[in-house]
Structures are given as C-alpha cells and as structure tokens.
Design brief:
Largest sheet: 6 strands, mixed
Helix content: 10-25%
CATH topology of the largest domain: Immunoglobulin-like
Structural class: mainly beta
CATH architecture of the largest domain: Sandwich
Oligomer: single chain
C-alpha cells in the first residue's frame, strides 16, 4: 500500500509538471516578424503554423537580445522574437516581447525555395556600412556566378535599418534550374565578406 501511495504521488507530481510546462509554452509566441504597423503599434509574427498579431500596449515591456529595454522602433521585419502573454481582464495581452535574432541583412522576398521566373524581384532590409550591400546569384549546379551587383539601402536615419529592392534579369541564362541568391556586405576594416545570408530558388521558364 505504501508503494502504491508513493507511485500515486510521483504520478501526480509528474502530471502537474507537464501541465505547468504546457501552460507556460501556450502563453509564449515565437516566430519571425513579417509585418509592423507603427501607427497602431502592432507586430505580426509568423511561426511554423500560423501568423499571430501582437498588440503592443503601454504596459508591454520591449527587450533587446540581451534583455535590456528597447524601443518599438528597434523591432524590424525579419527579426526573430519571443513574446510572453498574460491574462488581463479575461483576455491575453503581451506582457513582454524580446528580440532573439537580428541579422544585419534580411531577404524578405522571395522566400527560400520559392519558384521564380526570369525577372526576380528581391526585397529586404539591411543595416550595412555606407548603406551598401552586395547581391549575388549563383547557378546551384556548378556554383557559377551569373549576377553580381552593389545595391543601396534607404534608411531614414544614420545607423538604422533601411529597405532595399532590386530586379534581377536572368533571361539570358537558359540553363538555370536552381539558383542560390546571396546578400552580404564587405567589412570596412579588411574588405572580407561579412553578414552573408542566402536562399535557394527554383527557376521556372
């Protein structure tokens, strides 16, 4: 009988622990920022299963990747974030939101593994030296560079993220099926490639 009681106690503690873990996770939102409404202070986050709209109010704590206080303007498209929800007046509100990852260069469109045609429109945001970054396209099969260009970003202030946009013409390359699109900048110190990101794309003729 004593062993049975010990087993029951352990079982109850185990179930309670699982419940607590599930409850904590259910009140957390993790994903990538896909939209920011500055006027209404709304951040839309996409995770593996859905898009989640987060209303940021005056009581929401904004945190950078070191958990230091941040501003709403510090959050940018393409950032990975975690938000903690809490119950208030029988509704879930954002208690805090923290930046988990903030790459210097972010390709927003097209998405990785998307199918594209000869004219590829590339859109993104970046925080780069002298507002310049490099776009490069390689044939995935033989790694040949078929396109390379310096692109300007357009931030609203010094040291801020700015959008960039470029249309890449691949019409003269008949043998392209799969390509790798790279975006990077050169270090101001030694001209080495830094902050490089890449996506794979399928070319449809």
């Amino acid at each position: 009988m004593k062993k049975l009681w010990i087993f029951l106690i352990i079982f109850v503690v185990f179930i309670a622990s699982i419940f607590i873990i599930v409850s904590i996770k259910s009140n957390r939102v993790e994903g990538r920022i896909i939209d920011i409404d500055d006027e209404n202070r709304v951040i839309t986050v996409r995770n593996s299963s859905q898009d989640i709209v987060l209303d940021i109010n005056n009581q929401t704590r904004l945190l950078d990747n070191k958990s230091h206080p941040a501003l709403f303007s510090d959050f940018n498209l393409g950032f990975d974030v975690i938000a903690k929800m809490k119950s208030k007046n029988e509704e879930l509100v954002v208690d805090w939101i923290r930046i988990e990852k903030s790459p210097k260069i972010i390709i927003l469109k097209p998405e990785s593994n998307a199918s594209v045609k000869n004219m590829v429109k590339v859109e993104g945001v970046a925080q780069v030296f002298e507002n310049k970054l490099q776009l490069e396209v390689r044939n995935k099969e033989n790694k040949e560079v078929v396109y390379s260009k310096t692109v300007k970003t357009h931030p609203i202030g010094i040291g801020m993220y700015g959008p960039f946009e470029e249309i890449i013409d691949l019409s003269k390359y008949d043998n392209l099926n799969e390509i790798e699109l790279y975006a990077f900048q050169y270090s101001s110190k030694n001209k080495e490639i830094i902050d490089r990101v890449s996506i794979n794309l399928n070319v449809v003729k």
